[in-house]
Task: inverse folding
């Protein structure tokens, strides 16, 4: 029973991997844009892309 | 850079969603503005185009890439719930982005006080609330139209939309009957569940190749399928040969995947013929389009000669005369002779089509 529960949890987490990967990449890109390299317009583009693509993970 | 055919198909499908959303959003907003103010507002229309682009790409990517073009196998209630949630989230996000972009400020960027106030106002604005509900219904409508068109073909789609029945119509059509080789052995080897999945994958490939060559799948019965084209469409381009070649190539490319999944790679044989048939709609409830005529029987009889002659692709003299020459993809024809087909009074001249073993290029 415990095994089945943990397996289900693992499966659920596996499905969420793309979301975590996306959030991690977006955060790193946003951090780089805001601290090191680019001006505000690039930060905005990253922010827009990030917010726009979030609903795509509802599936 | 050349796009693969699969990528091109996906790209076209995403374009369909973008186009539909632009049409829908601009139409709805124009009507709403006209009803409210009695005039048209170009800035509102531009804002809606921006919203439609956000929504169109999102909807297209969701349906085509994430749900793998209607391959959603979840239970109905789950599918409905998740899809509804997605539509709501996507519409609200796109709308919010549009509002924020409209109030973008130089030096401050998209995240500014004005933008957030406008967003808070929009949440309580009845016009925005109505728009969200309208677009929610529109999103389902766009998916529905694509599904119906994809499942039943253009002609049935328009007939269904107009609520009309297809009147009996004489048409000159080319028919190609494609039959899966060794289907009985495969069914026995794989078992019914695996065999069913095998056939599903096989027909998915066939329908893609048929659609790419502007053909229509008329009927799928067991391990055989009738593909059809108007004769006029085949006079300048040998579409049945293109389709046969494409399907062969697809199966060769995807063969290792089939082998890995099912332990067997499908192969097929085909017969093609052309002539006049009557196109009509049969039945009342659950009606379907039907082609009546001798051409279909002859096509299937020609195909059954493949085994006897040891050929993969046979065509009748009638079709041979219609198709433009030289044939595409280096196909060469060979006169196989006159054959008396079962149930036919007159003999028919049959040609076999094959590619040379060495590449002509």
Result:
């Amino acid at each position: 029973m415990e095994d089945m529960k943990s397996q289900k949890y693992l499966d659920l987490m596996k499905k969420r991997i793309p979301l975590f990967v996306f959030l991690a990449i977006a955060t790193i890109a946003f951090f780089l844009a805001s601290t090191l390299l680019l001006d505000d317009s690039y930060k905005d583009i990253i922010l827009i892309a990030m917010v726009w693509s979030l609903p795509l993970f509802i599936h | 850079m050349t796009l693969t055919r699969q990528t091109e198909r996906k790209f076209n499908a995403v374009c369909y969603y973008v186009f539909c959303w632009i049409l829908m959003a601009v139409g709805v907003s124009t009507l709403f503005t006209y009803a409210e103010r009695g005039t048209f507002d170009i800035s509102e229309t531009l804002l809606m185009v921006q919203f439609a682009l956000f929504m169109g790409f999102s909807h297209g990517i969701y349906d085509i890439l994430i749900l793998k073009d209607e391959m959603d196998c979840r239970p109905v209630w789950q599918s409905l719930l998740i899809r509804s949630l997605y539509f709501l989230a996507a519409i609200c996000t796109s709308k919010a982005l549009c509002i924020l972009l409209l109030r973008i400020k130089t030096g401050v960027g998209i995240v500014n006080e004005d933008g957030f106030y406008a967003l808070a106002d929009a949440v309580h604005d009845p016009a925005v609330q109505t728009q969200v509900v309208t677009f929610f219904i529109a999103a389902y409508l766009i998916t529905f139209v694509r599904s119906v068109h994809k499942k039943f073909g253009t002609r049935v789609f328009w007939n269904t939309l107009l609520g009309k029945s297809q009147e009996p119509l004489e048409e000159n059509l080319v028919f190609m009957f494609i039959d899966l080789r060794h289907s009985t052995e495969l069914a026995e080897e794989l078992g019914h569940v695996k065999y069913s999945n095998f056939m599903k994958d096989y027909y998915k490939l066939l329908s893609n190749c048929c659609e790419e060559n502007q053909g229509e799948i008329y009927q799928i019965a067991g391990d055989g399928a009738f593909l059809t084209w108007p004769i006029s469409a085949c006079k300048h381009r040998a579409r049945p040969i293109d389709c046969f070649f494409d399907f062969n190539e697809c199966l060769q490319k995807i063969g290792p995947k089939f082998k890995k999944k099912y332990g067997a790679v499908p192969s097929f044989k085909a017969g093609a013929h052309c002539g006049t048939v009557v196109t009509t709609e049969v039945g009342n409830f659950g009606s379907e389009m039907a082609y009546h005529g001798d051409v279909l029987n002859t096509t299937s009889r020609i195909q059954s000669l493949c085994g006897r002659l040891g050929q993969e692709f046979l065509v009748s003299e009638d079709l041979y005369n219609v198709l433009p020459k030289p044939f595409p993809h280096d196909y060469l024809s060979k006169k196989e002779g006159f054959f008396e087909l079962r149930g036919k009074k007159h003999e028919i001249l049959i040609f076999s089509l094959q590619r040379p073993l060495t590449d002509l290029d």
In short: Chain A has one domain: 15-57. Chain A touches chain B through 14 residues (CB under 8 Å).
